[in-house]
Amino acid sequence: MSINTSNDEFVPFETTLFVRDHCLCLHTQRAARMLARRFDEALRPLGLKSGQFSLLMSLNRPQPPTLGSVAELLAMDRTTLTANLKPLERDGLIEVRPDNEDRRARRLVLTEKGCALLARAVPIWTKTHLDIESRLAAGSADRLRTDLTALLRDDDEKNH
User: Fold this and answer.
1) Which phi and psi (to 5°) does residue 42 adopt?
2) Cα gap 38→44, rounded to integer Å
3) What value does the mean pLDDT of the chain take?
4) Strand (E) or helix (H) holding 94
5) Angle (deg, nearest 10), helices 50-59 and 78-90
6) Cα–Cα dist 109/63, whole Å
7) Rounded distance, CA 108 to CA 106, Å?
8) Do 110 and 93 meet the contact criterion of CB atoms below 8 Å apart?
9) Phi then psi dihedrals of residue 127, to 5 deg
């Protein structure tokens, strides 16, 4: 099927069906929302959402990361990351500190309370993750990760 790309003032329903069935963006968004709901539900007893778990996990490093490196890892702009950090900081799970060598830079520190919460969350994440992966065909989870990583790498190369 070809997509109507003329300047007509309407889009044929067949085009809607084609996009519904083939759009990688739509399929990825739907899957991401479903995955986030599953992890949100699993982590709810700890008072965490999936995005907060990912953010806390991204801070679990030998040396506290900079705000910029975390934003890059999570593919977020700094403003969105800063907004997502505020509740974690308010709850005493993280601290935002100036960098010792570059006072303009900020380091994100996982507090003792944040480490303890993350340690309680990891077994829940592991169980949920294994359950989701078990529903996929053998090897397809690895292939999906590889393909998504390739898309991110291609995007990074275009933007740098």
Assistant:
1) -65, -40
2) 10
3) 92
4) strand 94-98
5) 90
6) 8
7) 7
8) yes
9) -60, -45
Asked whether residue 66 is assigned to any structural domain, the reply reads yes
Q: What is the mean pLDDT of residues 108-119?
A: 98
Q: Rounded CA gap, 70 and 74, in Å?
A: 6
- For 119, the domain range is 21-133
For residue 69, being part of any structural domain is answered with: yes
Which phi and psi (to 5°) does residue 66 adopt?
A: -80, 160
Q: Is residue 158 part of a domain?
A: no
Model-level pTM?
0.85
Cβ–Cβ under 8 Å, residues 125 and 43: yes
- What is the spatial distance between Cα 136 and Cα 151, in angstroms, rounded to a whole number? 21
Inside any domain, residue 119: yes
| 2 pLDDT above the threshold of 70 | no
* Total domains present in the chain: 1
Residue 96: which CATH number? Answer: 1.10.10.10
